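CHAIN AND CONFORMATION:

***
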Amino acid sequence: MHSRRRAIVGHAHPYVVEAVQSATARGLSFGAPTESETALAERLCQHVPSLDMVRLVNSGTEATMSAIRLARGYTGRNKIVKFGGCYHGHVDSLLVSAGSGALTLGSPSSPGVPEAVVADTITLPYNDLAEAFSAFTEYGDDIAAVIVEPVAGNMNCVPPVMGFLEGLRELCDEHGIVLIFDEVMTGFRVGLEGAQGRFGVTPDLTALGKVIGGGLPVGAFGGRRAIMEH
């Protein structure tokens, strides 16, 4: 299964093994940006339409968490919108209605997860632009970000209906909301430019995961320069 499509060229591909061995021979942890990190960042910005700047992190979860934090800081707002069935990593506020036992029905059902965790998370049905319009009409001035899997991989790879992503883009522009594409599953699988290239909709921020490391634990988030430099 290629580790849920993370190992995009397969398991133990000779090219990946050789690259890993070569990298470890140079050192494992430097505590500062390296030449290889810069080269990867440049390649990502070259291929992904939304990336003016990019920051590497340790996982897809860290990428989505960081993108949400950045969107909140940039907008000065707290609420976020996600869609039922979409998984954005193992972080409590994003596990709402994501198929996790902790928050499957939208409210905490696990010890250690307080009600306050979900207070600023608005969950909407995927592919329902009318519901999104209603929520934005009611909460638009309080919403910092909309995070969405452009193809809902966590619920059997449901593609977006025609106009859904385009509609989200228009609503976010209208209300000054940051649109985040979680391309941890779709990045470099549905096309070299990801789902945003395939569907022709450019988000403000993008999250990527282990696929950029051949299946190794790594992630990245990036987007518009004005937001990344905030």
Observations:
- Residues 60-75 form the longest helix (16 residues).
